[in-house]
Design goal:
Length: 301
């Protein structure tokens, strides 16, 4: 095996010298370095794309109302009491659930059951989702894709519902009914234009953003995968914040913590995909119908 060295000739010209020293070649090291560079290049390309795939949400300006009514008086007890939530800050909501290629680039693994580079990642728990946000923040700051006071995080439950509704007060962001005349069983043809559910999906097979977005340009807010939010579970809204912030997020991540998921999934009937529906789970749960999307925001004190 040969080792590449260098020797100094006249006029200080460096030329390679080949030295045999065993069974390992520096050429192999060059190959490994090239492979690492290619991986880093792919990761950076994915992070740059991710950084562009956010919608700037500016409550109180333009089409974004400053306040909205969160919950539903006609829904489950967990969706009550309906309360007014007022935002005094802006933020950026991701257009898509986190896809598998991005998750793997940041975390070094793809835990998903249903494989596909632009399919939503699933089969991770909320701690892993939070860790993804932490690592993405670090990498994006280092690449100057984020400012030092900006971060990637999970949305609060209020932020999520506000963005899902997209200015509406109806059961779904597109109207009051998921079904149309002539629908049978769980066909829900009105919903099917916007969401993957049991009436039109057989698994987590599609890429993100394959169906129509809501009025604010956000995809798959109804259906596809349930989405983790940062709040700790509560049985109703009686003690929930009214300023848009997360409710007891550290408790959600602690021992025996209960998390909140929103949006419904491809495993659920259309009734479970309403804008106000909530679902709880253990913070250790992993499921092929659960994923997450991110918020880009300024770090709050």
């Amino acid at each position: 095996m040969k080792k590449v060295g260098r020797t100094l000739l006249s006029r200080e010209v460096l030329v390679p010298v080949i030295v045999t020293f065993g069974a390992v070649s520096i050429v192999a090291a060059w190959g490994w370095a090239d492979e690492a560079a290619q991986i880093e290049k792919k990761e950076m390309a994915l992070l740059k794309t991710f950084n562009k795939e956010f919608v700037h949400i500016t409550p109180g300006k333009g089409k974004f109302p400053e306040s909205f009514s969160m919950g539903s008086e006609t829904g489950e007890a967990t969706e009550r009491p309906v309360r007014k939530v007022t935002f005094k800050y802006d933020f950026w909501m991701a257009k898509y659930e986190v896809p598998q290629d991005l998750y793997e680039a940041v975390m070094g693994e793809n835990p998903s059951r249903w494989k596909g580079p632009r399919n939503s990642v699933e089969m991770m728990d909320i701690q892993q989702a939070v860790e993804f946000c932490r690592r993405a923040t670090k990498k994006m700051r280092a690449a100057q894709l984020l400012k030092p006071d900006e971060e990637i995080r999970l949305p609060s439950e209020a932020e999520w519902e506000y963005c899902c509704r997209a200015g509406t007060t109806t059961a779904y962001s597109f109207g009051e009914s998921a079904t149309a005349d002539g629908d049978v069983d769980n066909q829900a043809s009105e919903l099917s234009a916007y969401a993957w559910h049991t009436g039109n999906a057989a698994g987590n097979d599609p890429p993100v953003g394959a169906l129509k977005p809501n009025a604010w340009g956000l995809y798959d807010m109804h259906g596809y995968l349930w989405e983790f939010v940062s709040d700790s579970w509560s049985d109703d809204y009686s003690a929930a914040p009214t300023d848009g912030k997360s409710h007891a997020p550290q408790r959600a991540l602690g021992k025996d913590g209960q998390v909140v998921m929103r949006g419904g999934s491809w495993k659920d009937r259309y009734e479970e995909l309403r804008s106000s529906v909530r679902k709880k789970g253990a913070n250790s749960m992993k499921d092929d119908a659960v994923g997450f999307r991110c918020v880009k925001d300024r770090v709050k004190p």
